[in-house]
Amino acid sequence: MTNRETAPYGSWKSPITSELVASASIEVKQVVVDGDDIYWTEIRPSEGGRYVIVRRTPDGELTDINPEPYSARTRIHEYGGGSCAVSNGTVYYSNFADQRLYRQEPGGQPEALSPPGDLYYADGIIDRQHKRMICILEDHTIKEKEAVNSLVSLDLETGKVIEVMASGNDFYASPRISADGKRIAWLTWNHPNMPWDGTELWVADLSADGSIKNAELAAGGSEESILQPEWSAQGVLHFISDRTGWWNLYRWEQGISESLAPIDAEIGQPMWRLGRSTYGFVSPNKIICAYTKNGFWYLGSINTLTGQLERIETPYTYILHLHALPGKVVFLGGSPTKMSALALLDLETGAIDEICTLGESEIDSPFLSNPEAVEFPTETGRAAYGLYYQPRNPDFSGPEGERPPLLVMSHSGPTWAAKTDLRMKIQFWTSRGIAVLDVNYGGSTGYGRPYRQRLYGLWGVVDVDDCVNGARYLVERGDVDGDKLAITGGSAGGYTTLCALTFRDTFNAGSSHYGISDLEPLTAHSHKFESRYMDNLVGPYPESKSLYEQRSPIHFADQISCPVIFFQGLEDNVVPAEQSEMMVEKLREKGLPVAYIPFEDEGHSFRKAENIARALDAEYYFYSRVFGFELAEPVEPVKIENLLS
Fold first, then answer.
1. 200, 170 in Cβ contact below 8 A?
2. How far apart are CA 112 and CA 94, in angstroms?
3. What is the 8-class DSSP label of residue 628?
4. 506 and 371 in a common domain
């Protein structure tokens, strides 16, 4: 055992550099199974954030499908998802630059399939019987009107729309055809609902010519969220519903829905992006699913005859993108101390083959902090949740009698959740001596529908209360220094951050990444998917105009009393740059320490490796100046206005 050096918290030297964090920021956005081949789409920061489709054959050979500069990313709903479909080795995908659909034959080059124009495609499935693709179309051609979404079929030879199969509602998702090609199911919903509020599951017969007939509502409504309809090989429709307060699995036969394995846990995630999957059929009587409870994910096996769910032991605490193959399942698996990987589980032997690891990491486990699931009291006698990471570095310890600074993280969404896979960004902080609390505030998923709806009408209040109370809980427990508390978040998490700094006096510093400072402009300029989101989170507009003003930090910036740093992509179509720039100007005028780092070539969230690294280093530098600790190694300085030396 080596002797530890005593050094101030925050100043510890760490092998987890910002460049390593950026290189480990590869994400899988979609998984597709075609016969025995597995395809996935991954973001590569080292290639400017390009979305690359990768194929893995049974012999283990990996091949990149779409060549540079093609990026398999759709802009549908602005967050995308479901950009790729595969049939007999032919890959169809949406290219980000022009949003056209492309076809790529095995060994061939991309060929444009759909015509040019402001048309976005996603969530496609191949109907071989009718030589078509059925997918979601989002039409932006009429600029002065809201985009029009519909369920359409496209000719696989010409790319032209053959038929509008369903239209008239605001949104569509998840078209699925039964194995015999005779039935189709899909999801739809309308403003002001988001897909985790209320969706409808529709079922229809397919005529010999492929047209829809006898459409009927199978499940769902304005108060029930349906996810991931799938047909079993026997032609039975399955779906996920939160009708009991938890996203559980159901099957639908002859007009009757039946719960398969009731559990106080979530078999599902909010449909921010299309094309995700959390269950698959491995035999007529067995379904493998991923489910989450208290912030951690598990793999389970459901016996459809008995309704029993048995947990399958794996080393993973975060599981997504689950698909079934004969005798196997593939999924994205992650844990707090190991890089996420696409895992292929043999259901007979239990053997796991990690077919692709997302990024390289040679960091020894003594540098990695394991999360502690914490439950803490919050307002109105309720409990809130989070994942607490204490500082960890085998080479350093803090001065006797001192406690580390705490960085509270407020996740985006806000209908999302903190994840328990290896978050190198979190380890960047903990390995330097800064504790982290990743808060699952009221409104987060994974704790049931009532917990998710705590935020309704109270966005900017409940989330802030929970972040504040989480920090206070750790201070009172003796884990962290109550005079060195910072809060950070991106997008909606940036809004929570700015609200916490504006309307509370708990934190001593903050970092807003493309955060919302003024709610009102978003009611007029937000993209279609989120244009009515705030009806539930805050209230209908303009009827609730005064409430929007009361919840907007921009109107109360004079109440902020601590240093703040802002990061912003100048091509952000979700939260425009003015949202950050207005706050920066207000704090500048007030004479508060403030810093602003814009990125000309980034949109909503940062995808390029150099920008990810720069933002992390800049935030670290900022905290070092505010909290008064020395950096173990030099980083590019940040201009902090109004900060006295």
1. no
2. 10
3. T
4. yes
- Contact criterion met (CB below 8 Å) for 567 and 597: yes
Residues 417 and 456 in one domain: yes
* Number of domains comprising the chain: 2
CA distances from 170 to 191, 532, 575 (A): 7, 11, 22
What pLDDT, on a 0 to 100 scale, did the predictor assign at position 492? 94
Quick one: average pLDDT of 522-550?
93
Question: In the predicted model, is pLDDT for residue 1 greater than 60?
Answer: no
Residue pair 229/185 in contact by the 8 Å Cβ criterion: yes
- Read off the pLDDT band of 2 (50, 70, 90): low
- Give the domain CATH number at 563: 3.40.50.1820
Q: Are residues 436 and 474 in the same domain?
A: yes
DSSP β-bridge partners for residue 139: 119, 148
Are 422 and 544 in the same domain? yes
Is the backbone peptide bond immediately before 542 cis, with ω within 30 degrees of 0?
yes
Regarding whether 505 and 399 lie in a shared domain, the answer is yes
- Under the phi-then-psi rule, with left for phi > 0, alpha for psi from -120 to 50, and beta for the rest, what region is 448? left
Q: Indicate whether 398 belongs to any domain.
A: yes
pLDDT tens digit sequence for 156-214: 999 999 999 999 999 999 999 999 999 999 999 999 999 999 999 999 999 999 999 99
Among the three residues 341, 360, 379, which one is the final residue of a domain in this structure? Answer: 360
In angstroms, how far is CA 158 from the centroid of its own chain? 34
CA distance 352 to 331: 11
3-state class (DSSP) for residue 209: coil
Q: What is the spatial distance between Cα 490 and Cα 16, in angstroms, rounded to a whole number?
A: 21
Q: Which domain holds residue 386?
A: 363-627
Residue 486 CB-density burial (10 A; 0-12 exposed, 13-18 middle, 19+ buried): buried
Count of residues making up the chain: 645
Residue 95, φ and ψ in degrees, nearest 5: -100, 130
Mark whether 496 and 476 lie in a shared domain: yes
Q: Does residue 454 form part of some domain?
A: yes
Question: Once rounded to an integer, what is the mean pLDDT over residues 547-556?
Answer: 97
**Does some domain include residue 558?**
yes
**Angle in degrees, CA 42, 46, 50, rounded to 5:** 45
Domain boundary at 360, 376, 399, which? 360
Query: How many CB atoms neighbour CB 353 within 10 A?
Result: 13
Residue 268's nearest CA partner among 240, 298, 307, 231 is 240
- Largest CA-CA distance found in the chain, in angstroms, rounded: 78
Tell me 104's DSSP state: E
Q: What's the pLDDT score for residue 337? A: 84
Given a contact cutoff of 8 angstroms between Cβ atoms, the answer to whether 190 and 170 are in contact is yes
User: C-alpha 543: how far from its chain's center?
Assistant: 31
CB 152 within 8 A of CB 137: yes
Give the pLDDT score at 361. 64
Dihedral (Cα; 111, 114, 117, 119), 10-degree rounding = -120
Alpha-carbon Rg for the chain in angstroms: 24
Q: Give the pLDDT band (50/70/90) at residue 636.
A: very high
Q: Show the beta-strand stretches assigned E in 518-608.
A: 564-569, 594-599
632 pLDDT above the threshold of 90: no
pLDDT tens per residue across span 362-400: 678 899 999 999 999 999 899 999 999 999 999 999 999
User: Stretch 591-601: mean pLDDT, rounded?
Assistant: 96
Q: What is the DSSP letter of 283?
A: E
Phi, psi of 27 (to 5 degrees): -125, 145
- Provide the 10 A C-beta neighbour count for residue 477: 11
pLDDT of residue 360: 65
> Is 174 a domain residue?
no
